[in-house]
Design brief:
- The chain is α/β, with parallel strands linked by helices.
- It has one domain: Flavodoxin domain (Rossmann fold, 3-Layer(aba) Sandwich), CATH 3.40.50.
- Helices cover about 30% and strands about 20% of the residues.
- The chain is built from four helices and nine strands, in the order βαβββαβαββββα.
- Strands 1, 2, 3, 4, 5, 6 and 9 form a seven-stranded mixed β-sheet that branches. The protein has a two-stranded antiparallel ribbon with strand order 7-8.
- Strand 1, helix 1 and strand 2 form a beta-alpha-beta unit.
- The radius of gyration is 15 Å and the shape is globular.
- The structure holds flavin mononucleotide.
- The site of flavin mononucleotide has 23 residues, from helix 1 and strand 3.
Length: about 170
């Protein structure tokens, strides 16, 4: 099994989380790919994709994701299993909390992919988010807020790593 962790990160918060996820799951399984340096086409090389995206500028994509946004359409993703994590600021940007993660999920859902790693929305305080599922009960991936809840980041990501590995094992039988 090869796990590709792709992320974009302007102020390094997402990058630090990406490194922690790699350390929790194991560097022998997880390869880090900073979208600043690699093409999204590389996603085709992996079985399981973990994708990290912070939200910027009132509900917008982080710049490295934005730069490769159109190229995502032509990546061979059919059959991939995808786990998303998003980073945002629920108090400073509570009307757009983690929006980019929801926008990314919608984009990827145009491919024949399956998603794992949905995360409960309890324990957060925000007005609106495009990263919630249809009934609003869960985020479409791990929700992290290093601006206001940095102490929660490590326990959340550790629990989520166990969760996605279990869900992936169940998916592939
Ligand atoms: C100018 C600015 C705009 C932001 N806009 C949003 C936003 O719309 N929604 C959100 O959830 N977080 C927003 N954030 C918070 C960032 O997503 C958060 O700080 C994140 O950890 C940054 O990750 P990075 O350092 O990996 O780029 C914003 C932060 C800044 C400084």
């Amino acid at each position: 099994m090869r796990i590709g962790l792709f992320y974009g990160s302007t102020n390094c918060h997402t990058e630090m989380v990406a490194e922690k996820i790699r350390d929790v799951i194991g560097a022998e399984l997880v390869e880090l790919n900073n979208l600043k340096d690699v093409p999204v086409a590389l996603m085709a090389d992996y079985d399981l994709l973990i994708l990290g995206i912070p939200t910027w500028d009132f509900g917008q994509l982080q710049e490295d994701w934005e730069d490769q946004w159109d190229a995502l359409d032509s990546v061979e993703l059919d059959g991939k299993v995808i786990a998303l994590f998003g980073m945002g600021d629920q108090l400073g940007y509570g009307d757009w909390f983690l929006d980019a993660m929801g926008i990314l999920k919608e984009k990827l859902a145009q491919h024949q992919v399956s998603f794992i790693g949905a995360w409960p929305n309890q324990g957060y305080d925000f007005e609106a988010s495009k990263a919630l599922n249809e009934d609003g009960s869960q985020f479409v991936g791990l929700a992290l807020d290093d601006d206001n809840q940095w102490k929660e980041t490590d326990p959340r990501l550790q629990a989520w790593c166990v969760q996605i590995l279990e869900e992936y094992a169940a998916q592939i039988g």
